[in-house]
Amino acid sequence: MKHNKSILKKTTVVDFKQDAAFFVDRGMRFLNRYDYEKALRSFRRAVEMEPANVECHCHLASALAETGQFEASNEVLYEIIEKWDPSMVEVYFYMANNYANLEDYQMAEEMAVRYLQEAGNGHYREEAEELLDYIYFELDLPPRHFQPSENEDVYSKHERARRSLEEGRFLEALDILKEIVEADPDFLPAWNNLSLAYYYVGDFQKAMETIDKTLEKEHGNLHALCNLAVLLSHHNHTVELLALMDMLKKVVPFHPENTYKLATTMGVLGQHDEAYFHYQRMLRAGRPHEACTYHYAAISAYLSGRKDQALRWWQKAKQMDPESGIADQYIQMVKNEQEGETIKPIPYQYNPPQRDVSWEKAPFTGVEDFKNDPMIRASLLWALQHGRDEVKFAVLQTLSLIGDDEAEHAVRQFYYQTDNPQLQKLALLALADMGAAMPEDAPKSAVKGHQSSAVQAEMSVEEGIHRYLLAEGQQEAGEWCLRVWEKHQKYAQSQVQVRKAVAWIAALEYVYGTIGNNKKSQAYLAEKYGISTATVAKCVKVLSTLDFK
């Protein structure tokens, strides 16, 4: 016992250092033991601790690729080259391998060529050349013409455009894709995505023209033909659509990307048996797939009468993405149907079942969700192009509430496109509510009652409180508003984008009056500050999350 006490007295406590290097080393050990889940967890922890450390990102990308998550791996690699270290050209070689594993050989070729152009006699030169040999000779694919190295950012730009499309920033994607096809007219993936961008913003004529140009460059391009089928369906061109669908039904693609595109297109067009056939082919191939793929396959199975198979695929989607709860809701939907409940039609979307994505029926509290919902974004832009005048009025109001750069772009573009004076005025009011600069040719009378946008852009909220409250003798109200605004700046987590200082001042004055039993209506304050009542309400909602004690 004495001996043990002496040991305890001599023991020195050493801090257990857990830095990024520790988690990288730990991840490598888990990887060597094929414990991929713990390896990924360790590498993600390393990235969280040192986000600027590209080595941590590379380890994470490598582990993702090791587990068959090639698309996720490429997302990490794109972030390295775009955000952390543009000089790390090895990233292009890693992406080339990922694209090859995804059987997207066009992108694999582009990344391998870019690596060779950027790296010269780089470490992976021999492997990149072997990959190109495989693409050109083993697969019998002709080499494409590549531009000089200084213009090779077309690939990262295309990836950025693709992400913008997925996230509902259609106008942003449109601008990027236009630049790409102008710089590299032979880059067909950009042409295909450009037609989709035009479709999502409601410019169907441009979408059709873009598809025609794509098919001129490559007769039989499957992506272009699928896009054409969707457009023909939208315009009720039944004769042409039936002929095209008969042709598409005979196509059995080899590459997974083309199979996925055809399966999704057939599902959207209501050809669920054909969609099921292609999804089943993909999933039987044994390659890794994302949860949404199993979800779409389950929808095709369900709508083609194969409900047991649908349940199995939704169970698989649940295993892969348990946190979203989407698969759970569809599984419950099938059980409800078995108990006699009538089920509404299911669209091919990775959303909860029977979810109402109509912007017209969404409550005010849902406006912030519009920013992240591509379906509603597309609905808004389509209605702004093709809706009735009263619908366009509602869309302009909704876009002014969203208030981000994409919304401003859409409203400004609409102002120049419409020849309706009343709608032009409403567009100007929407821009004013967003705090955006007025078009140079805008008549000043159109926004009478609104503050000069230039003045508002320059004035801070603090300056506005001094100007509109303290300078007018409202000392107590002004000091209270300054304190609350400081608290908002320090603690608020909201992503609401309202750039007009007077909107926040109006909201502060409203909250102050409510607390101090001197309440003024939001309509009164909106008129006082020359803004819309909806904008005041949006800012009030944000401020109401603060503790005013």
From TrEMBL:
<dbReference type="InterPro" id="IPR011990">
    <property type="entry name" value="TPR-like_helical_dom_sf"/>
</dbReference>
<dbReference type="InterPro" id="IPR019734">
    <property type="entry name" value="TPR_rpt"/>
</dbReference>
<dbReference type="InterPro" id="IPR050498">
    <property type="entry name" value="Ycf3"/>
</dbReference>
<dbReference type="Pfam" id="PF13432">
    <property type="entry name" value="TPR_16"/>
</dbReference>
<keyword id="KW-0238">DNA-binding</keyword>
<dbReference type="Pfam" id="PF14559">
    <property type="entry name" value="TPR_19"/>
</dbReference>
<dbReference type="GO" id="GO:0003677">
    <property type="term" value="F:DNA binding"/>
</dbReference>
<keyword id="KW-0677">Repeat</keyword>
<feature type="repeat" description="TPR">
    <location>
        <begin position="20"/>
        <end position="53"/>
    </location>
</feature>
<keyword id="KW-0802">TPR repeat</keyword>
<feature type="repeat" description="TPR">
    <location>
        <begin position="188"/>
        <end position="221"/>
    </location>
</feature>
<protein>
    <submittedName>
        <fullName>DNA-binding protein</fullName>
    </submittedName>
</protein>
